[in-house]
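tool_call: predict_structure(chain=1)
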Amino acid sequence: MSKVGVIGSSGLLGKAITRVMTRNCPESVVEFTRSRNSSYSSKTTNLVLLDILKFEQSLQSLKGLETIFFCNGYGGIDYASEEADLCFNSEKRLIEKLLDLDKRIIYFSSNKVCLLQDPTNIVLPPSLHPYLQHKRSIETLLRRYPNQTIIRLGKVIHDDFPRYQSWIKDCTNSRSIYIPENAYYEPVDINFVSEKTFKIYKQDLSGPFIMQSSDAISYFTSARIVIQTFFDTSMYNHLINPVDLEIPLPAITLDSVYNLGDFLALKGSTSARVIEMVAKKMRSTKHAIFPSLERK
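tool_result:
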């Protein structure tokens, strides 16, 4: 069986991809992560430490692979910083090297990339612009080669989603929270992403694809859904207050030919339904996540 690699396997997306691959293709997965302790830690996987800034040190391990999933994230990095530039440039050089070695790449991009080409000249938050430019640059590179797969993702959510946990903790402690009403996102469940990605891999599909909810939702509205679903009551609604960002974050709707382009849409449920499902999962394990909460 051909070997596959997961770059960024320590992140939640990388762990989900590693999990579904090892479940379906035992003994075939190689994890690439910066930290041994944060890997998926499956007994059926091999582990290679990879620093994206020094990828040449791990290149030999990559050469024996047929397909490589790029789940590399940039958590905690200011996208407008010099550090981000170094990471972006190094990742692009690594992808160029892998393409020269005739590797198949499954690359996770962002559905917000389409905003860079919006004919209405939408202004983007300065911190987001460099990240999307980098994603578009990689997409452009991959499109020059056959059989490469681009998957644009909406906001990937799960029952450990930090933003939702923060909202819940604040309401638990009766703290008011202020959530943007003019910033939108398109949630997609992490299990939906991993299962659909495995099918794309197994069927050797190129796409390109976009995975997101069938509609968009504001962060303010989603906060109300999370809190009401988690606590099964509306008694905390008064703590959730709407605010407007100076630079709004537009919605990506798949009924727009412009937003969709030549991407094949793999739509999940409505945004409200996706969020409710995740909040219910959080509620079912709330005593593990929030041990201070009393059992009802």
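agent: The chain has two domains: 4-153, 162-183+215-257+269-289. Proceeding to next step.
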